[in-house]
Amino acid sequence: MHHKIIPYLCFFVFLLGCKQSAKEAGHDNSKSVAKAGEEELTQDAFTEGFVSTGVIKDSLFNAKKSIENWAIEALFYQEAMSKLNEGEVQIEKQVQDYRKSLVNYIYQSKLIEANLDTTITKEEIEVYYNKHRDNFILKENILKVNYFKVPIKSPALVKIKRLVWSTNPKDKEQLKALCVLNAENFFMNDSTWLFLDDVKKEIPGLKDQPDFNLSQGRVVEFSDDDYYYYLKVKDVMVKNGLSPINFESKNIRKFIINNRKTQLISQYKQILLEKAKTNKTFIQF
What we know:
With 285 residues, the protein is α+β, with helices and mostly antiparallel strands. It has three domains: 2-83, no CATH class; 91-133 and 244-285, no CATH class; 138-237, Chitinase A, domain 3. It is built from nine helices and seven strands. It has helices spanning 2-25, 43-52, 59-83, 92-115, 122-131, 157-163, 169-182, 196-202, 245-278; strands at 32-36, 39-42, 142-151, 185-187, 194-195, 219-223, 227-237. The strands form two sheets. Strands 3, 4, 5, 6 and 7 form a five-stranded antiparallel β-sheet that branches. Helix 1 (2-25) crosses helix 2. It starts with a helix and ends in a 7-residue tail after the last helix. Residues 1-27 have low confidence and may be disordered.
């Protein structure tokens, strides 16, 4: 085994020093260190590739393995070229098309970043919503709720249970402050719609409740060995109905922004075309 390692050690040390010593002595660095089919691996190519990977550690194994990996790829490529017909390997046009698309995308992104107006008014959202109502049909049940999930051993639990039934605005603020400190999770935003399935993940007992039982004004309160749960349904929208505008506002903003991007680039390209016509840099024969 030691006899096999010594030649690779010498070979690797020779390769690493080859580039500099050859330059000093005026020698040719294009000497081959391996051949695979019709392709040869030069000292320069191997040394640069090997050192650039930073794999000096365990170099005896890596030197041999690097050459074998190069041979595998070289042999596979030669096999592919011999088996594929001419039409299947004409990739120059594909490479050119990809490069053109990539360059255009980079420039397009810069144009959008510099020129896009991202301000969207409430009126614009309403106009888009009313114009595309058929696109905003609910696929899941959604609802507005207040809910709390509080550890059963929380010292504030008795007070939280009392405050959840209060209609006093000051009590609501106190309840929120207590939940921040004690609740595992809670939600008290009366204007935000949530997916019913997401609420069920927070309150496992809801899985046993039929969806139609969770109507507006319904209160669900129960405990298990670990937590106290409270849920009050503020409003409900069932699937297959029209989705409310405030539930769709984020999506509408994205749609409007994407439309503006498309229009901006389309208009810019049209300006380029008209300018080229004027300057006679575009001539249609």
